[in-house]
Amino acid sequence: MKKHIIVITTGGTIAMKKDPETGGLVPAVSGEDLAAAVPGLSDWADVSVVEFSNVPSGWMSAEKMFDLSHLIDKLSEEGKADGFVVTHGTDTLEETAFFLDMSLKTEKPVCVTGAMRGASELSADGPENILSAVRTAADDMSKGMGVLVCLQDRIYAAKDVTKSHTTNPDTFRDLNYGPLGAVYGKEIIYGRRPMPHARLHPETIEPNVWLISAWSGMDGEIVKCAGKAGVKGVVIDGLGCGNVPPLCRKEILALRKQGIPVVLTTRVPSGSVMQEYSYEGSALSMKESGIILGGDLSGWKARLLLVLALGETNENERLQEIFEKM
Ligand SMILES: NC(=O)C[C@H](N)C(=O)O
């Protein structure tokens, strides 16, 4: 029997067309029209569409992701679908996919997709990506795989996928572990399962979390600003395997002393924070002073995890445990 898949549209280039006046892409395609433009979609699944928003993905926020997560769980509980596809702008697609992966209760397949070319452009990649995402969400093998991301016929784990090129349609990559699987001819083929990780279902979230990238010779001014601005958490995107320069180290530790949770990630696009060194400002030395290590999460994903986790607790040891389960 054909599966029922709900396509939830949020916006992004996939739903954009060229504005004849400016020559630039702008939101222009409704959710219904997006699905209607995919040839043969109904051969694979019964599809219905829910338009959540129609915005560039930089206009998404943790609050909107929280709403989207609740919407998917509500539709799932009502038994309205066997699986879900979310269409999204690619700039922050991996953030929303990760947030959903962390927060959803449903075990039904959820597959996020987007496009790098607008709906009016030559070789628009949106229709093919929607078709592949619907096929992925409708496949029994996708159950229990967590939130998936499917573009260019490759299927990725939301936690690990990242955008790697500003304009090329073949932009999504898992730089650490490779794809989970592929849409291959008439089949959906998985080569491995995603690694299990913590899920969080807080009643509320704390979006007032900053992400600060480190640079060589960085001083502590911007970190001080975060403290003065009343942030509830900070992620420092450190150097190499999670090291920070000496002047900002002092201010990071001062933030921690004020009771503000600080997570240390790496600005390097692959690999993980590692306790390789013990000099001042190294990941090992920071951990000894109560700084939470972000593992293999990118800074922006670690930020979202902290946004969610702070909805549950701001107790440093509990936050540390949550990050260790990733
Ligand atoms: N390809 C895209 O969707 C990029 C667009 N700027 C967005 O993220 O909304």
UniProtKB/TrEMBL annotation:
Keyword Hydrolase tagged: yes
Q: Which residues form the L-asparaginase N-terminal domain?
A: 4-193
UniProt keyword Hydrolase, yes or no: yes
Q: Which reaction does it catalyse?
A: L-asparagine + H2O = L-aspartate + NH4(+)
- Highest lineage ranks of the organism? Bacteria, Bacillati, Bacillota, Negativicutes, Veillonellales
Which sites bind substrate?
S57, T90, D91
State the family named in the UniProt similarity comment for this chain.
Belongs to the asparaginase 1 family.
Q: Name one GO biological process term.
A: asparagine metabolic process
- The UniProt record lists the EC number as 3.5.1.1
The EC category is hydrolase
Per UniProt, the keywords (alphabetical) are: Hydrolase
Residue span(s) of domain Asparaginase/glutaminase C-terminal: 208-323
What GO annotations for molecular function exist for this entry?
A: asparaginase activity
Active-site residues (renumbered): T13 (o-isoaspartyl threonine intermediate), T13, T90
Its protein name is asparaginase
